[in-house]
Amino acid sequence: MLDEPPITLFAAQPGVTPGWVIRNLPAWSYTKSVYGVAAWQWVALPLAFVLSMLAGSLLSAIFVRLTSPIARRTATAWDDELLVALRGPATLFLGTTAFWSVEPAIALRRAASDVVGRGVDALLVASLLWGLFGLLDVLAHRVGARIAKAGDTKDRGGALSLVAISTKAAKVLLVVFGFILVLGQLGLNVTGIIAGLGIGGIAVALASQKTLENLFGSFTIGVDRPLHIGDFVKVDDLVGTVEQIGLRSTRIRTLDRTLVTMPNGRLSDMRIENYSARDRLRLHAKIGLVYSTRPAAVRRIVEEMRSYLAERPGIYPDAINVNFIGFGDSALTLEVMVWLDSREWTEFTVWREEVLLGLMEIVEKNGSALAFPTQTIHVASYPSPPQQGPTEKRFER
What we know:
56% of the residues lie in helices and 15% in strands. α4 (39-73) packs antiparallel against α5 and α5 (78-102) runs antiparallel to α6. The longest helix has 40 residues, at 110-149. It contains 13 helices and 11 strands.
């Protein structure tokens, strides 16, 4: 710490004279300084900043309180959401502006005042970027809500995924732009930084090859829309529900309730089977009848099964297939293939149970039975060998 006469403290700030607060401070508070900033100024700066932020919070709260009734009376909801999203950025902006207005009263030296001025500029830029973040969130929410009210279910899911991915990409670009802008406000050589990024761009691209691959994969998924949030899918051997599609990866909740994260770059090259995209659900069953079933009984069973399925509610009427398809190892095989005009898996399982029980009753009613794997062994009988008496041996001398 350096000792200075009090008069040198204000010599760098013409027109600023010690007020009653300065006159009533102890002498050490303005005779002791660090880096040209007096002790009282080290205390006054953070105190003024905190008080300015409190004032900014109070002003933004008053503004929201006054404008909320007006926003609630409008027919749309976006203005209410915008008020909530911009309250934080407004607090930072108003608080920083208040601090900038009171900072000259602290009578800093020119060098220290320049440093504080750069910090104020950086905070103002940060508040604007924060506000743009909130605006992006509100815009994405409103676009998503409008998409959810119109269009087909499949299109809705794909559009919502694309909105989410585009919003995240815009936020990433905004962060990069804001970072460079804040560095420029802090007095750093932004041109050199951008040039350095350009020179190191190849190295960064090589180092982040997988990241870029996943990023482009996410856009591929968003454009092609092979899956959407909430879809029940099969990806290779993985079966589950899509919970989130991000910029880098997609998360799938499996039937065991585990969460699997798959990189988008790999996912975009994989075979994806989307069960949620089915327009109807299929029942495919093979029914084996015992070999003792007579041909007339088989004909009756097939005809009654066709009539039974045609009368069932929810059956897709243009494709009811019941056929005798061949002679199995231990059964006469019937093939049943029909579709339920529904996409709900729970409804299908209940319907399938009722249909299969009905088909069993038809088999039983016609005097047949369901076959199970059997093997019949035929043993051929051979004549018994002739009886032989005792063998007599003769020895001759």
